[in-house]
Amino acid sequence: MRRLFLSLIFDIVELLKSILILLVAVEHLYILWIEMFAWETAGKKAFGGSLPDHLFTPTKKLAANQGLYNGFLAAGLIWSLLINDAIWSQYIAAFFLSCVIIAAVYGAISASRKILIIQGLPAIAALTALWLL
Predict the structure, then answer these.
(1) pLDDT tens digit string along 10-21?
(2) Which residue among 26, 43, 74, 116 is least enclosed by CB atoms within 10 Å?
(3) pTM for the structure as a whole
């Protein structure tokens, strides 16, 4: 009975870690969509305070490039969830979550502190769960 309980707890913890990683990946897929495909519409709503409206059209290609990088982050995080080897999966997830955190810190310094909360906090939570649980 105790072994079954511990196994169930372990499974729940693993599921929690996977959900946190997946949430960060989905967030970055959403950012990809905004920056690559909806820069002049949803992008204005999301980033309107940091960029004047008249600059959204001329910066469309720059935003698309940024969106592509967010897609790479999401792809790496999703890849980490598909790896069968638990240790390798953890290392890949840790690498991509660290990339997200570094990008969020840089974004907070160079653009808006809100980036650290919106993008950095979920990645920090996922990385913390990955290493501590």
Answers:
(1) 889 999 999 999
(2) 26
(3) 0.91
